[in-house]
Amino acid sequence: MIMENLLELNNIWKVFDGVPVLKGLDISLAKGQVHAILGGNGSGKSTLMKIISGTYQSSNGTIKYLGKEVNFTRPYQAHREGIYLVPQEPKIFPYLSILENITIGLSKVNGETIEKVKSIAEKIGFKVSLRDDAGKLTIANQQLVEIIRGLIRDAKVLILDEPTSTLTVKEVKSLFDIVRPLLKNDIGVFFISHRINEIFDFSDRISVLRDGNIVLSGNTSNFKPIDLIKAMIGNSDYNVSQNCNTKYDIGKVILSVHNLSSEVFKDISFDVRESETLGIAGIVGAGRTELASAIVGLEPYHSGEVIMDGKKLIPCDAKSAREAKISYIPEDRHKYGIFLDIPFYETISSEILKKISKVFLNKKQEKEISKKYVDELKIKVLNDEQYSRMLSGGNQQKVVISKILTTEPKVVILDEPTRGVDAKAREDVFQIVRNLKKKGVAVILISSDLEEVINNSDRIIVIHSGKINLELDKKDFSMEIITQASFGVI
Questions:
Q1: What does this protein do, in the record's words (predicted)?
Q2: What residues make up the domain containing 377?
């Protein structure tokens, strides 16, 4: 049976700063259909959905909705026409009632609107009083509030962006049981997920994105999980013996994590040795950043322990981690790592001000220390008063690395260290890592770029849904196996 299309996208391109991230995509959504969108980190999934929902505009191509060409420039325009994006993290106003959260932004809320909300809530099995504060809702019910928001606006297209990433198995089943009946009303669903088993359970059609292209598309029944994995990684596989030939004298265990558990990750255990790089692979949302934050005392954990150089660290105590010589370079360097609107040298010296200053700041010594790292790390600056904001992304990252090197760390945790930097700066960053290893420093590398993890690690652990799913030594590194483990196929 031929299904009538709700939405058709033809030759969709999206270019950011001259770099294409979507490359001539053709994709459609039929009435009553669940179309799953799968792809690795950075494949273009979110960009595509933001174009459909009006957050971004395509650089080229056409979108037809209900047979008519549309060009949404704002999300509210898409909402008005019946296209609604349910985000991965529900946007809830905790001190407003559930009803107020659902109807927020509507031009008119009257008795008829309220009855419509009640009717939809009843149909989808939402059993919480609409008068209750939204802040009391479980994550699963927050997702339902987002879905009701879409349906109250007469949505014909629902985009579910990783809706199950924070749900229990029971809550996932409940969500699917609620969404399936909606398909009978000719609603179509784009379903983005990293959980391949859910894609096969829930979808009618699958499209796989890689590097901004659709590389596989068809009815779900035509594929097996391994087909999707191979489509995501292409023909590439890596034997690390061709890469990373430098040998290091790996020393004693310096950091041990024993049975660490939180709300996000469960029963994590591993060791890291002197002069070793432990790569942590996994998809976005797997719990890698939360794990790193817990190790350095920035996020809580409810059981387990972190032992550094034979001494147990105090949980949720960043000072304890710093004093033990663990340094962390976070994923968002602008938010947590660098001071943009002061001279760059002040960021470099910020971790050791107590050490180099007495009553007053010693600007001369700050600049001398800064110059040492400018020379060693080849940071390109115009003068020593240049603001960090004026540096390139790669040089900003080198400033952040310089800051943690001033503390003479024994363990360095790098979270997405090359995000937003060019190829030359990437190589510079990993040359710095190699120099650290020569000095006996242990490195934990978290990266969504599998090539980067494989080429720069001595061992790799793969985290899936908050648990270690696989551990590999260098001789066993395989792009395909690591990808399968990241998506929970093995």
A1: Part of the ABC transporter complex LsrABCD involved in autoinducer 2 (AI-2) import. Responsible for energy coupling to the transport system.
A2: 240-486
